[in-house]
C-alpha cells in the first residue's frame, strides 16, 4: 500500500483505488461543468489569515455546542447518501467514527443502513436529514422513526426538488442500491435504460411542490428542532428565520445540484448577517483543511459539515478511515488556532481573515 495519508485530500486517491469507477465517480462528481465544484475549494484559497502573536496558546479548546449539544470541535459529518457503496458496514461505521470523535453525524434520508441500525450502533448525538416525499405519509412515518430512535434534530434539505445533472453518473449508468429506510414503504424500482436511475428515482418520489408553507406541516408532525439545508442568499436566510427554523446550513449540496452557484464560503457572511445571530448558521462545501474550518468560523459559521472526505475515509478504511479524516481536520484546526492566537473558538473573529480577493 502507498504511504499513510498525511492530509484528508490524500484519502481521495485511496478511495479511487478502493472503489469501482461508477461509485467513485458518484461520490466525487458535481453538476454539469463542475464549475462550482472547483470553486467551493478554490474560494477558500483566496481567504488569507490575520494571526495574532504573543497570545497564551498553551491550552487550545476546540469544543463548541450545537443546539445545546457539546462536541469536541466544530466539525460535523454532512449527510451523504448510500455509504454501503463505499464500505460494507456503511453508515453504521460512519456513525461509530462520529461517536469516537465526539461529534455529530447527520444521517442521510438516502442511507443504505436504516435509521434503527445506525441508532443502535452508537449512542452519540445524531441528526437526521430529510427529503420530503410526494407520499407525505411515508415522510411522516420516517420522521416518527427518527424521533423514536433518539435523533436530536431534523435537517431538511431544500435544494433538491429535482436531481442536479451529474454527467459521470449518466455515462456510467449509475444505479442506486436499495434505500432501506423506505423498505416496504415505497417502490424504488425504476427503469435504467436512460442512463443513471437516480434522476428518475428522485423525480418519482420527491415532492417538487414543497414550499415555505410546508415548514408548518413539518413542525406539526414533530417536536424536533428543524434546520434547513441549502440556503445561499440573504433573502432565503431571512425567510427561514421568519418561518421559525432552529438553524440554517449554508450549502450548495457539494456542487451537485445547480452549477454556477457561488462557492459557499463566499456567501456565508451574507447569510450570517441576515440571520443576525437569531439561529445558528452551519456551513458546508469544500472543507478540506483545518484552516478552512477556521475561515468558516471567522466568517460566522458555528460549525462546518464535511461531505466527500468522510466518504473517502470510509472507502479507504471503514470506521478507522472516517476517524482519521475527522482527527486530521481536528489536528490541523487546533494548530491553526494556536498559530493564529485563538485559544478557544469564541476567540476566532472576523478580523482573523481577509476576503479582499473575493470582495473584488
Ligand atoms: C451529498 N450531499 C447530500 N446532502 C443531503 O442533504 N442529502 C444527501 O443524501 C446527500 N448525499 C450526498 C452524496 C454525496 C456522494 C455527496 C458528495 C454529497 C451533500 C452533502 O450533505 C454536503 O452538502 C456536501 O457534500 C458538502 O460538500 P463537500 O464537503 O463534499 O465538499
From TrEMBL:
EC numbers on record: 1.1.3.15
Catalysed reaction, written as an equation: a (2S)-2-hydroxycarboxylate + O2 = a 2-oxocarboxylate + H2O2; 2-hydroxyoctanoate + O2 = 2-oxooctanoate + H2O2; 2-hydroxyhexanoate + O2 = 2-oxohexanoate + H2O2
Enzyme class, spelled out: oxidoreductase
UniProt xrefs under CDD domains: alpha_hydroxyacid_oxid_FMN (cd02809)
Gene Ontology biological process terms, A to Z: defense response to bacterium; hydrogen peroxide biosynthetic process
Keyword annotations from UniProtKB, A to Z: Flavoprotein, FMN, Oxidoreductase, Peroxisome
Cellular compartments per GO CC: peroxisome
InterPro entries named in the record: Aldolase_TIM, Alpha-hydoxy_acid_DH_FMN, FMN-dep_DH, FMN_HAD, FMN_hydac_DH_AS
Record: residues binding glyoxylate: 131, 166, 253, 256
Subcellular location: Peroxisome
Essential cofactor(s): FMN
Binding residues for FMN: 79-81, 108, 129, 157, 229, 251, 284-288, 307-308
GO molecular function: (S)-2-hydroxy-acid oxidase activity; FMN binding
Active site annotation, chain numbering: 253
Principal cellular location given in the protein's record: other
Cross-referenced PANTHER family: PEROXISOMAL (S)-2-HYDROXYACID OXIDASE GLO3, S -2-HYDROXY-ACID OXIDASE-RELATED
Assigned protein family: Belongs to the FMN-dependent alpha-hydroxy acid dehydrogenase family.
The protein's name: (S)-2-hydroxy-acid oxidase
